Amino acid sequence: MSESTSTPTTATAATGTAPSSTGSERGRGRGRGRGRGRGYYRYYRRGKSSAPAQGSGEGETAKSAEEEKIKVADAGQSSGGNRGPRKQWKEYTPKPKLTHFLCIPLGHNPAFRESLSKVTDALLAADPPIPGLDPSIVMNARRMHFTIGVMSLHRPSPTDPAAPVRTLDEAKQVLDELRPKIQTMLNGERLRVALDNMDIMWPYRGNPENANVMWIGPSAAASTTERFMAVGKLIQGAFKDAGLLIDADRPLKLHCTVVNSIYRTPRQRFRKPFSYPSILASEAIKSILVPDDVSDAEESDTLESEEQDEQDEQGEKDEEDEEDEKDEKDEKDEKDEKDSDDKPKAQKRKKGPMNVDLGEWEVDELQICEMGSYGAEGEYNAVARIPLA
């Protein structure tokens, strides 16, 4: 009597017959220990949501698959394994088209153009050629300027149709109001800027061999920088308060772009970088590098970009990896480091901008220029300007 009322599993074991292929053991299969197993793929991947008849052993498998399906959906995980949460895509925000920019020009000075052109011409004539360097990506010396901010004038906001349309007349009014304030700050003295720093932005994967932008600018240590930055911040603040600047919260980083791979012609599908170490090793740059450069790179924080910070972090990580690989030679490494202190530091790329000597120059104008509009000498067309003296 007891045998006739035994469970199907017990009866199966007693008779020695194989368990049903639809039993609960099917869900474990070969996937045991390596993922969700066959049961998961049978019910989740095929989209089967209804549970089998009670007592067949498949109800628990289907239920667990449905619970796991909900869990995966809630956690945003992939069904292919433990890949972690899926990347949450940011909502696309249309940006206004930029039409004008506010700048302090430098390229209108003939002496400066001659000084910079000597360096860039020598770089283009280097033998062997510098990898990736091309005349199309070297900026025209006539266009050298320090950008204060960018604007979108005479165009409605793409995110707020009700926002007032900013006009060039408004920008000119702010410009005129700035003139007496700048004159008061300068107190009759000429505004000058030293070009004693050179560095790169946005190297691909932090590798200076794959640089895209090279710039020059003032260092924080230069005697003229503090006043130059103060005037720049005064100008930026006035246009920001008037609501005329796009990305007004970006920090002010005054620099002149000398090389930019985005202008390479003919246009390519991907940006082709250039080799910054090859530029540093060229005779043209050696002639303007400051000998025995012992300045602290932290002094140039006002000009460093976020992309440069990533490059610095990658460099520190690479140095740590090298130390880990040479644990067995610690004593020899310490001796080598002591000996290397006597070698010129120019042989080793330092962290941060390089100290160069490209002269100290007077800046005497503030301009509003129209993007994409050029004059007879290749300069940006200025639609408004005021003197800084």
CATH homologous superfamily (4th level) name of the domain at 100-316 and 352-387: Cyclic phosphodiesterase
- Gross morphology is globular
Output the strand order for the largest sheet. 2-1-9-10
Which fold does the CATH topology of the domain at 100-316 and 352-387 refer to?
A: Cyclic Phosphodiesterase, Chain: A
Set out the fold topology.
Layout: H1 8-15, H2 37-45, H3 59-75, E1 100-105, H4 110-124, E2 145-151, H5 168-186, E3 192-194, E4 197-201, E5 213-217, H6 225-241, E6 256-260, H7 276-281, H8 283-286, H9 306-325, H10 330-340, E7 354-355, E8 360-362, E9 365-374, E10 380-387
Antiparallel strand pairs: 1-2, 1-9, 3-8, 4-5, 4-7, 5-6, 9-10
Helix pairs in contact: 2-3, 5-6
Summarize the structure.
Helix content is 32%, strand content 14%. With 389 residues, the protein is α+β, with helices and mostly antiparallel strands.
Give structural notes:
With 389 residues, the chain is of the alpha+beta class. The chain has a domain of 253 residues: Cyclic phosphodiesterase (Cyclic Phosphodiesterase, Chain: A). Helix content is 32%, strand content 14%. The protein has 10 helices and 10 strands. A 4-stranded antiparallel sheet has the order 2-1-9-10, covered by helices on one side. The chain is globular. The N terminus is likely disordered.
Search tags:
389 residues, alpha+beta, Cyclic Phosphodiesterase, Chain: A, four-stranded antiparallel β-sheet
